[in-house]
Structures are given as C-alpha cells and as structure tokens.
C-alpha cells in the first residue's frame, strides 16, 4: 500500500467515527516513518496517543493539545501476505481513540493493559495487537 493510499484509508475510516468520540482531540497525524518499540527489537509501534498532560506552571504545554499519531512505516514493517490493512488501521485508530477517551475521563485502564502486553513481549510472548 502506498503512503497516499494509506492516507486515504485513514481519512475514510476516521470519518466513520462519531464526532462525540473525537471531542477534545486536535488531530490525527499520519507519519511516514516506522517507530520501533523501545527495548523490543522487531516490534513496531503502529500508533500512539499523544497527550501533553496537565498544563505546566511555566506554560510549556499550552497549545499542544491531544493527538493520535499513526506510523505508516510501522504498518509496512508488519505487513505480510494476507495483511488486512483496513482491519489493522481500524483497530489501531480505535485503540488510540480509547486512550483519548480514557484520558478525558481520568482513567488509564488501557495504558495499564498496554504495559502488561509490553511486559509479556519482554518475557518472550507475543499476542494479538503487538506493537499497537
């Protein structure tokens, strides 16, 4: 899949998500590079939720806002025969959107789940959703 086709796919899928779930989200960034998961060779981060956290007393976070980043290069790295681009992009978008919604609600359930999954990778296990 080309980068341009990936952009079109993300845009089409993003439009399916109701606006109420996107409240407070400044954007979705589709970045061309691959992003390796630190400390886990061969595991690629497909997307991530970027939340600057609470405002800084020094104003360091003013205007940054909340964003989702998708890494086209990471999708390319994990894509093999039979890879379902649409399904993987959809799952990744929803995963990152859940991070956003939990952040708005002051929760970190999915963060904790992701940390458990990364710990399992470090111990040598692999499972569905690797690199998300």
How many separate helices?
A: 4
* Shape descriptor: globular
Mean pLDDT: 87
**In percent, how much strand structure appears in the residues?**
5-15%
Major pleated sheet: 3 strands, mixed
Low-confidence stretches: 127-132
Cα(first) to Cα(last) distance is 19 Å
Q: Classify the oligomer.
A: single chain
Can you list the strand order of the major beta sheet? 1-3-2
Helical percentage: 40-55%
What does this structure look like?
- There is one protein chain.
- With 132 residues, this protein is α+β, with helices and mostly antiparallel strands.
- The protein contains four helices and three strands, in the order αβββααα.
- It has helices at residues 3-15, 72-78, 85-104, 109-122, and strands at 25-31, 47-50, 66-71.
- Strands 1-3-2 form a three-stranded mixed beta sheet.
- The radius of gyration is 15 Å and the shape is globular.
Q: How do you describe this structure in short?
A:
This protein is α+β, with helices and mostly antiparallel strands and about 130 residues long. Helix content is about 40%, strand content about 15%. The chain is built from four helices and three strands; from the N terminus they run H-E-E-E-H-H-H.
From the structure above, extract its key features:
3 strands; 132 residues; globular; single chain; 41% helix; alpha+beta; 4 helices; disordered C terminus; 3-stranded mixed sheet
């Amino acid at each position: 899949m080309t980068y341009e086709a990936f952009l079109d796919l993300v845009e089409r899928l993003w439009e399916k998500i109701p606006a109420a779930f996107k409240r407070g989200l400044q954007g979705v960034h589709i970045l061309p590079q691959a992003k390796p998961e630190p400390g886990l060779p061969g595991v690629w981060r497909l997307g991530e939720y970027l939340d600057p956290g609470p405002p800084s007393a020094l104003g360091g976070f003013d205007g940054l806002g909340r964003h989702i980043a998708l890494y086209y290069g990471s999708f390319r790295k994990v894509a093999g025969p039979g890879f379902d681009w649409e399904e993987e992009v959809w799952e990744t978008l929803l995963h990152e959107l859940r991070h956003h919604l939990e952040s708005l609600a002051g929760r970190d359930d999915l963060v904790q789940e992701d940390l458990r999954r990364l710990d399992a990778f470090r111990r040598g296990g692999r499972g569905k959703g690797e690199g998300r």
